Amino acid sequence: MMQSLGGKGRKIVLAGVLLVLLALLAYVVLRSGPLAPVGVTVAEVKKQTVAPALFGIGTVEARAIHKIGPTAPGRLLRVEVQVGDTVKAGELLAEMEPLDLESRQRAQAAAVQRSRANVQSAEAQVQEVAVRKAYAQTQAKRYEQLLAAQSTSEELLALKQQEAQAMSASASAAQANLEAARQELQRLQHEQEALAQQRSNLRLVSPVSGRVIQRSADAGTTMVAGQAVVEIVEEGALWVHARFDQQRAQGLKAGLAAQVALRSLGGAPVAGQVVRVEPRADAVTEEVLAKVEFKTEKLPSIGELAEVTVALPAQQERPVVGSASLQRVGGQLGVWVVEEGGHRFAPVVPGVSDLDGRTQILEGLQGGETVVLYSEKALDSGSRIHVVERLVKPAAGTAK
Amino acid sequence: MAEIQSSTLRNGVRLEGVRKRYGQGDTAVDALKGVDMSVSPGEVVGLIGPSGSGKSTLLKCLGAVIEPTAGRMTVGEDTIYDDGWKIKDLRALRRDKIGFVFQAPYLIPFLDVLDNVALMPMLAGVPNAEARKRAMEMLQALDVSHRARGMPSQLSGGEQQRVAIARALVNRPPVILADEPTAPLDSERALSVIRILNQMALQFHTAIIVVTHDEKIIPTFRRIYHIRDGKTHEEAGEGREIA
Amino acid sequence: MISLAGKDILHSWGKFILTGVGLGLLIGVTLTMAGVYRGMVDDAKVLLDNSGADLWVVQQDTQGPYAESSSLYDDTYRSVQGTEGVARVANVTYLTMQVRRVSAAGALTGREVRAMVVGVSPEGPGAPGYPRFLIDGRHISRSHYEAVADIASGFALGDRIKIRRNIYTVVGLTRRMVSSGGDPMVFIPIKDAQQAQFLKDNDAIVHQRERTAQNPMVNRPGTPGVLDAVIAIQGSNPYVNAVLVQLEPQADPQAVAETLRRWKRLSVYTRLQMEDILIAKLIATSARQIGMFLVILAVVSAAIVAFIIYTLTMGKIREIAVLKLIGTKNTTIASMILQQAIGLGLIGFAVGKIASTFWAPFFPKYVLLIPEDSLRGLVAVVVICVLASILAIRAALKVDPAEAIGG
User: Fold this and answer.
1) Which residues of A touch C175 (CB under 8 A)?
2) If we measure between CA atoms, which residue out of A62, A71, A56, A36 comes closest to residue A293?
């Protein structure tokens, strides 16, 4: 093969091959496996403000849903509206069957009439008794005069006086009777009004102007008291019922500005505001609840999912690290600080962070230190580190 | 020539009554049945015989490769065998006292020509530089020094054979055993080899035994040993001059 | 004396190097197989290390959450948190499922990735269950729809991925966060993960609602709100797979575990117990499978190495005979063969180590090449070469120099 080169040439080539082999072997042993240093990227700790934000998801809800239904059990006579219809306040939505109510009203009317007649007769009776009373009293007086003139007996006078008194009593009784008849009339009239009210209750009208969002029953259905037939929502009165993790929800209060991303709008955020933070949080899911209003042209559907980002007030300047720098070593949370002689673990107390992972450090760093951001392996104090630009090649076509 | 022939056999080769029996009992075969030979330093004798006559057995005994059954062998000043090996280190014997030349050169293919020859003194413990120096001298004597740094595969057959002869001679052994050294060669080259052997024998006072049946070179021997059925008898050869 | 072994190697260096490379590839395969085995065991260990937990609290009488399925109410953690010795707790869910990248328009693109979806509580980095380090991006900051993925999943920062019903944006990347089976992990907020694990698909939900509505016990006319309440309960997902516990520095894991077991009626495992469960039970069969193959491979490799060295020697048998004839010492010949065998072995080992290091990252699961294995491999290669050369030397020394002299 290499005869032409002669002994020396051959020696050189062979030595070359062996040297290359040895070099590769040394490279392989030192640069890979446990003997190799750990590649890391570092970042400088700068003093910065962060603009923390809260992120939560929620559903679009109506501010008020008016569930219209009968107050008494009955049967549905007709429903006038469909889902999606716009209604005005006072408009008839549905009506219950009156069933026996009309008969009862008629009965009641008859009773009232009868009662009126009773009152009339009581009044007549009062009149009659009054007349007789007047007569008896007149008679009593006359006989008093006659007795004074000794034209009559004392018995007759007593009789006439007794008659006068009896008539007086009768007059009171008749008056009382009249009162009773009048009260009875009133009572029956009130009952009549009650039936009328019940009758009007059978008419289900819309309390507000808005849109029908649900129609739960059709004509002929038997309903119980409190069962909704139609649900109405005021036009445009929507908000997002949002849920935020309790642990991260410090600072959430009414009035904060928010960005609301609705699925129906393709996730493009619209401006909004936190209306209120619910006083009662969800103990099971450990979330704080809040209502966030928003303004859009095209109204989303009720129940649609939305993502809410609430901007919290910016914090003052403090040393900031990326969230990837925070690690827990030996039970303590901290960062790896890279110094001249090597690296050491510095425990820190973290403060707030923004949604891009930039975390403020309250204690443990001054600013200006160089800390490890990304590493190929979990570090410990004995590792050898080796600082590089990037650990991951950028993906083709993206520039994140 | 005559003077040399009659000198004492102090540095030559001598065999007396050498026997070799293979096997035992009824199946025993006597390959050698009492062989007597003697070759003086500077002499080139032929050993001729048909196959199966025992000539390779004789060569192997002489070369201390196999052990004879009985007899006496003397190489140079040493009695190497007298009804039993008298030399402990046969390998050293072969290295220092006996040179081999074969039909084929049998050079080590991964050593260059110089190292092929220099290997012999190196094996004897001579330092490398000195060994190579001696090897170069021998190559010059055989007129192949210009090929010293080449690999054996680059040489012609004749050149290779000359290198082989150089290797056999470089330790100045008292005896060289040549087994059919000219068999593959044409008459010109064959005679050339024999001429070289004669030259070397004289130059280095070496006794050379050439086993052959090559008709081309047999006439050149002054003395010939015929071997048949395990026995030798001596004959005078033609002793023809080589051109 | 010149080096016969050296001269021979120099003369046919090409054959020598090629043989060394061939041997090296075989050795590399064996080293890699050992790496595959170690990688499997490491996957299990790394899973436990990365969870950052000292204790695992799971459903009673199960060996979850990795080896068996386990379901706990998600408020169990409150009572665990109050136990003495406990520093931090976190709910966690694990579910292995298919995850797929989606385009900006929401269409599925690319291939499906089998990943272990981990639901982590919103405490932030340093909490149990969170990835301990990142190689790019940041940790999850929003309570929904963000994910941190292991780079083995093939996802990049900014990718949108679909897990069950929702689409998540990859905001951070990490490394070596894998399940015990080697599947890459994807971390998402726990509420989303609970929904992914426990909430069924839309068709099933609709059927469930219909079935519930047909049930006269809950759908009575006199009680209008009951049906909605029951459906709402059915749609809630108050379960998690485990509670991870980090202990105070001076707490004794065994003691705290025992307290939790006895008083809270839960199964609790320490780190050692989890290791035993994972390694002895979960991966034992696969590990044995690979272990057996490794043994066979090593034996075959040894045989081939021996065969190659033997053949190399036998190819020189004529030269050996001549050398013996011209007076070469047996030890010289033996040392030539031995030197060549060991040289071949060393070249083979170097090639094998280099090759296995370079091709290990391309394996779909983790291959862990440790120096101890390489050292063992080196020793084994040298020993095999020596033994093989002994065989060859014996054959060489038996050669009769008389054969060099023809019959």
Assistant:
1) 376-377
2) A62
Distance spanning both ends of chain A, measured CA to CA:
54
Kindly state whether B128 is in contact with chain A, defined as any CB-CB distance less than 8 angstroms: no
Beta strand A257-262 with A305-311 is antiparallel
What order do you get walking across the sheet with B175-179 strand by strand?
A: B98-101, B175-179, B207-211, B44-48, B223-228, B231-236
CATH number at residue A366: 2.40.420.20
| CB-based contact A55 C144, cutoff 8 Å | yes
- State the pLDDT confidence band at B6, using cuts at 50, 70 and 90: very low
Q: Model-level pTM?
A: 0.72
In a shared domain, residues A243 and A387: no
Q: Which residues of A touch B (CB under 8 A)?
A: 3, 6-7
Number of H helices, E strands in chain B: 7, 10
Mind listing the domains of chain B with CATH numbers? Answer: 2-97+173-236 (3.40.50.300), 108-170 (no CATH)
Residue A216: closest C-alpha in chain C:
C224
Q: Judge if A136 and A186 occupy the same domain.
A: yes
Distance CA C76, CA C264 (A): 9
Residues with Cβ within 8 Å of residue C333, at least 6 apart in sequence: C4, C320, C323, C324, C393, C396, C397
Query: Which of A264, A289, A311 is the last residue before a domain boundary?
Result: A311
Q: How far apart are CA A278 and CA B119, in angstroms?
A: 103
Q: How many Cβ contacts (< 8 angstroms) between chains B and C?
A: 78
Q: State pLDDT tens for residues C109-144.
A: 877 899 999 999 888 888 888 888 999 999 998 888
Highest mean pLDDT, choosing among C106-120, C137-151, C319-333: C137-151
A344 and A296 in a single domain? The answer is no
pLDDT lower than 50: segments of chain A:
1-2, 397-400
Nearest CA distance, C148 vs chain A (angstrom): 11
C-alpha–C-alpha distance, residues C108 and B110, integer Å = 66
Could you tell me if residue A245 is inside a domain? yes
Residues of A in contact with C358 (CB under 8 A): 28
Point out the residue among C7, C322, C401 whose CB comes nearest to the CB of B65.
C401
Instruction: Using DSSP bridges, classify how beta strands C185-189 and C146-150 pair: parallel, antiparallel or unpaired.
Output: antiparallel
Range of the domain at A139: 101-192
* Span A252-285, pLDDT tens digits: 888 899 999 988 877 788 899 999 998 888 877 7
* CA distance to partner chain C, nearest, from residue A102 (Å): 25
